[in-house]
């Protein structure tokens, strides 16, 4: 696995969900399915143009500006 530098750029709580936006700091051409997350895995997510939109049903314990634990499987 290869570490991908990423940072949390937005967090919003909506009803029983947490929406987290993460910006990748390097170009990544793989798909969302080739990403590996740290201990807190999102319920669902989307990757487009170096931006990850993630949905959690529990508080992921992240703050704005935090580094985001992310790896690529290939």
Structure description:
With 74 residues, this protein is mainly beta. The chain is built from no helices and seven strands. The protein has a four-stranded antiparallel sheet with strand order 2-3-6-5, with no helix packed on it. A three-stranded antiparallel sheet has the order 1-7-4, with no helix packed on it. A hairpin with a 2-residue loop joins β5 and β6. It is globular, with a radius of gyration of 11 Å. The mean pLDDT is 93.
Give the SSE layout:
Layout: E1 2-3, E2 6-14, E3 17-24, E4 35-37, E5 44-48, E6 51-56, E7 70-72
Antiparallel strand pairs: 1-7, 2-3, 3-6, 4-7, 5-6
Short description:
It contains no helices and seven strands. The chain is mostly beta strands and 74 residues long.
Query: Looking across the biggest beta sheet, what order are the strands in?
Result: 2-3-6-5
**Number of helices, counting only DSSP H or I runs of 4 residues or more:** 0
Distance between the termini: 6 Å
Looking at how many chains there are and whether they match, the oligomeric state comes to: single chain
Q: Helical content, roughly?
A: under 10%
List low-pLDDT spans.
none
Largest sheet entry: 4 strands, antiparallel
- Strand tally is 7
Return the average pLDDT rounded to an integer: 93
Helix and strand pattern: EEEEEEE
CATH architecture: Beta Barrel
Structural class: mainly beta
Percent strand: over 45%
CATH class: Mainly Beta
Tally the structural domains. 1
CATH topology: Elongation Factor Tu (Ef-tu), domain 3
User: What is the alpha-carbon Rg in Å?
Assistant: 11 Å
- Shape estimate: globular
